[in-house]
Design goal:
With 124 residues, the chain is mostly helical. Helix content is 60%, strand content 6%. The protein contains five helices and three strands. This is MerR family transcriptional regulator.
Length: 124
């Protein structure tokens, strides 16, 4: 194994992410591993940063298909992205706002049904 490269267990330990999830990230094209002759995964020295970025983007509600497109677009060592993908993030934010509005409307409707039902039961 090359210096600075990590086995999957080491990457899991360093990031606090379960091995199962690391395999999932790899299957989704979010994380790249090289295979040894014995078939063991080896991750490059940038894998810890990549996992942190994946976790941040997942926490922001982005689906893995979007994250896969964003992974090559980071500017610097943090989670800042290049200007060319900011419109894509704006679309994702607008979609999230729309879903929140829909959920808020559904919550109000459900609350109304519950209130009406509670009043009807109190009358009986």
């Amino acid at each position: 194994m090359e210096p600075g490269h990590l086995k999957i267990g080491e990457l899991s330990e360093r990031t606090g992410v379960a091995i199962r999830l690391l395999r999932y990230y790899e299957a989704q094209g979010l994380l790249v591993a090289r295979r040894s002759e014995g078939g063991h995964r080896h991750y490059g020295p940038d894998a810890v940063t990549a996992v942190a970025r994946i976790r941040t983007l997942l926490a922001a509600g982005l689906p893995t298909r979007v994250i896969r497109d964003l992974m090559p677009c980071f500017a610097g060592d943090g989670v800042e992205l290049q200007a060319c993908v900011l419109d894509h993030l704006r679309v994702q934010l607008a979609d999230l706002d729309s879903r929140i509005a829909d959920l808020t409307q559904a919550r109000v409707a459900l609350g109304g049904i519950l209130a009406d039902s509670t009043r009807a039961l109190a009358v009986v």
